[in-house]
């Protein structure tokens, strides 16, 4: 496995090749170090909850935007296209600020940081999910629709039981990428005060003045999270493919 | 049995279809009675596939009327679905669902379109798998089967809808020669059950054995319709004679 060559590189980096390291700040064998470390790690559940909720919504939304984009009706296609172009053009940070500070004024409802973060991330990502779904669905041969229609399935059942199961297998790697991307982009929600990994690290840096160690831990937290996700996606891919090939 | 006075189960009257400016079907008048077996042949691009795909609404037509089992096609989505539940279709490329096992391929229509329970659909599917003589392949995936077996699964999948009409679009053209007969045998057997069959094929041995009428198409028109005995020995039109020369003497 290629990624194991990272281990010696990191070890070298962390093994005090410079006198500037001050690992005491997160040394779990001291009381203060342990408190700091668990403070940093306590952001993990928010990062995970935020990203997973957002990805579920954005995948659903992406599919709902992709389907009319494949219609033969040009108004539906236009609406889908318009959504993708508009949403894709908004930087994620701008989307977060707009949803958190702007949307409440527009709707009169106040939204907590968590849901503001979820909405902003999900909206931003949905445009990309829509494009992924569109490409995946378009890659399925016309004969599959014809066979499904010939056994009297309607459009909904054809999509649900014939087209999407095949399309999703094909786009699984791309969906996995989006989840990784989502985990990383969730760090931006720290700007509105969401207590996720990055926010925790920023707060600790302010009190401890050890940015090098604390941000290194932060890097490792994201790395660990994303390696777990990648392994999960690969496992899922393998499982779904043995289904078909055997 | 005298079927001459029965109302036709399929009627085309004055049907035309265009792709842009190109006219694929030219004012087609044609009908088939219940239980009739019709073989359609003709040169490549003559509109054979387009014609039979109009019967189950996979292609829309621009003028004229098509009536199948008393239902007029093209009126609305519901009538199209109704027609499709009466009409099975077998394709050149099989078009099995690759993500489903053989038995699941067969059960999908009965469960989702006919609202059957899964156990009942499974029984039905096994019955038709037996009929195409591959019950032992039920739990395999399509790509694990040979072409001939896949096409027989495709036939069984259509039969599970218990259709009144079966359409075949060059069902043996994508098969290796040694597998053609296992598929034709199943079709001959099906013809023996009184199923209405419309078959596009160049397998003239099959046509001779099974067809009640031969239809010859060229350039989007039905040029000649005749019983096989007459069709093969005394074709009337020049175009049909040329065509038969080519395919019978290759
Ligand atoms: N989607 C399409 N757009 C434009 N032209 C088409 C389309 N489908 C078919 N055609 C044209 O319509 C004509 C009839 O096609 P069709 O497939 O019905 O012929 P066929 O008799 O089945 O031929 P073959 O023996 O090659 O299967 C051909 O000239 C073909 O090029
Ligand atoms: Mg054809």
From TrEMBL, chain A:
Keyword list, A-Z: Amino-acid transport, Cell membrane, Membrane, Transmembrane, Transmembrane helix, Transport
SUPFAM superfamilies, alphabetized: MetI-like
CDD domains linked: TM_PBP2 (cd06261)
RNA-binding in keyword set: no
Subcellular location: Cell inner membrane; Cell membrane
Domain ABC transmembrane type-1 stretches: 44-233
Name recorded for this polypeptide: Amino acid ABC transporter permease
Similarity annotation: Belongs to the binding-protein-dependent transport system permease family. HisMQ subfamily.
Main subcellular location of this protein, as a coarse class: membrane
PANTHER family listed in its UniProt record: GLUTAMINE TRANSPORT SYSTEM PERMEASE PROTEIN GLNP, MEMBRANE COMPONENT OF AMINO ACID ABC TRANSPORTER
Species of provenance: Albidovulum sediminis
Record's bilayer topology term: Multi-pass membrane protein
Transmembrane segments: 43-70, 106-124, 214-236
Record has Acetylation as a keyword: no
Function: Part of the binding-protein-dependent transport system for glutamine; probably responsible for the translocation of the substrate across the membrane.
């Amino acid at each position: 496995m290629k990624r194991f060559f990272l281990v010696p590189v990191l070890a070298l980096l962390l093994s005090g090749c410079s006198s500037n390291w001050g690992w005491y700040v997160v040394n779990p064998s001291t009381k203060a170090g342990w408190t700091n470390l668990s403070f940093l790690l306590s952001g993990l559940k928010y990062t995970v909850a935020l990203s997973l909720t957002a990805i579920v919504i954005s995948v659903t939304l992406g599919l709902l935007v992709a389907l009319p984009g494949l219609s033969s009706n040009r108004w539906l296609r236009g609406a889908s296209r318009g959504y993708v172009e508009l949403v894709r053009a908004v930087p994620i940070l701008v989307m977060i600020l707009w949803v958190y500070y702007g949307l409440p004024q527009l709707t009169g409802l106040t939204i907590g940081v968590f849901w503001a973060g979820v909405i902003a991330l999900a909206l931003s990502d949905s445009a990309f999910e829509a494009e992924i779904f569109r490409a995946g669905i378009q890659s399925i041969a016309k004969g599959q629709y014809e066979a499904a229609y010939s056994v009297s399935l309607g459009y909904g059942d054809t999509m649900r039981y014939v087209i999407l199961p095949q399309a999703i297998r094909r786009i699984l790697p791309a969906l996995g990428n989006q989840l990784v991307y989502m985990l990383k982009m969730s760090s931006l929600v720290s700007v509105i005060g969401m207590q996720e990994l990055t926010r925790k690290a920023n707060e600790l840096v302010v009190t401890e003045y050890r940015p090098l160690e604390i941000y290194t831990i932060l890097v490792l937290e994201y790395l660990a999270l994303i390696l777990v996700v990648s392994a999960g996606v690969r496992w899922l891919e393998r499982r779904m493919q043995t289904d078909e090939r055997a | 049995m005298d079927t001459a006075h029965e109302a036709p189960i399929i009627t085309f009257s004055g049907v035309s279809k265009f792709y842009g400016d190109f006219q694929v079907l030219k004012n087609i008048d044609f009908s088939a009675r219940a239980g009739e077996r019709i073989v359609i042949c003709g040169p490549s691009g003559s509109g054979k596939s387009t014609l039979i795909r109009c019967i189950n609404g996979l292609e829309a037509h621009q003028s004229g009327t098509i009536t199948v089992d008393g239902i007029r096609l093209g009126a609305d989505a519901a009538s199209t679905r109704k027609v499709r539940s009466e009409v099975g279709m077998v394709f050149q490329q099989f078009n099995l669902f690759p993500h489903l096992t053989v038995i699941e391929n067969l059960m999908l229509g009965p469960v989702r379109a006919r609202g059957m329970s899964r156990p009942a659909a499974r029984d039905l599917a096994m019955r038709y798998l037996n009929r195409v003589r591959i019950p032992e392949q039920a739990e395999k995936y399509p790509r694990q089967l040979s072409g001939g077996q896949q096409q027989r699964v495709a036939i069984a999948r259509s039969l599970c809808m218990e259709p009144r009409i079966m359409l075949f679009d060059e069902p043996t053209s994508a098969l290796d020669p040694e597998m053609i007969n296992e598929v034709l045998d199943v079709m001959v057997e099906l013809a023996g059950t009184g199923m209405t069959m419309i078959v596009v094929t160049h397998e003239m041995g099959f046509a001779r054995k099974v067809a009640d009428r031969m239809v010859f198409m060229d350039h989007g028109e039905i040029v000649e319709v005749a019983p096989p005995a007459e069709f093969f020995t005394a074709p009337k039109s020049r175009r049909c004679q040329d065509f038969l020369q080519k395919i019978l003497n290759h």
